[in-house]
From TrEMBL:
Domain of life: Bacteria
Keyword Lipoprotein: no
Organism: Alkalihalobacterium chitinilyticum
Any GO BP annotation: proteolysis
Annotated compartments: Membrane
InterPro entries found in the cross-reference section: Peptidase_M50
Protein's name in the database: Site-2 protease family protein
């Protein structure tokens, strides 16, 4: 019974921490992958009971998974709801599919943005380049790879003719 009380106290203390979280604690160069792993390690040390810790992690995962963000299960429910509304309004299927893809990409970027931004920020500090310059170089590389992919797809289509 003491383990359940300890788990409930842990959840209570985690919920109390939520209002004190600032954007600068999520997005900063010190919060790169190693820093985030250290955070998870310290949280794991907080949960000393293995069974209750796994139950707590499962409960937290279920709650986070139901958030209405595309890319999570809650987001799928939102996308299904939006698709149903779109069909009721008589929108074209191709438009709905493109909209759903855009929502999924946006939701996925939202989910992984702390990891992406923090690691790029950390790399920019290590290289001594401004953050914006690193972002521009990455965008340039992505556009080059996209153009190569489009070129190769067109070549494949021409070969099939």
């Amino acid at each position: 019974m003491g383990g359940i009380v300890q788990a409930i106290r842990g959840i209570y203390h985690l919920l109390l921490l939520i209002p004190s979280i600032k954007i600068s604690t999520i997005y900063s160069p010190e919060r790169d992958l190693i820093g985030q792993l250290e955070l998870y390690t310290s949280l794991a040390q907080l949960m000393n009971s293995t069974v209750l810790g796994l139950a707590l992690l499962s409960l937290l995962y279920a709650m986070i998974n139901l958030l209405p963000i595309p890319g999570l299960d809650g987001g799928r429910l939102v996308l299904l709801f939006l698709e149903e509304i779109g069909t009721q309004l008589g929108l074209k299927e191709s438009f709905l599919q493109k909209s759903m893809k855009a929502c999924l990409i946006t939701g996925t970027f939202f989910l992984f943005s702390p990891f992406i931004i923090n690691n790029i920020w950390s790399i920019s500090l290590e290289l001594g380049l401004p953050f914006i310059e690193i972002i521009l170089w990455i965008m340039l590389l992505i556009s080059i790879f996209m153009n190569i992919h489009i070129f190769l797809e067109k070549q494949e289509v021409l070969r099939k003719r």
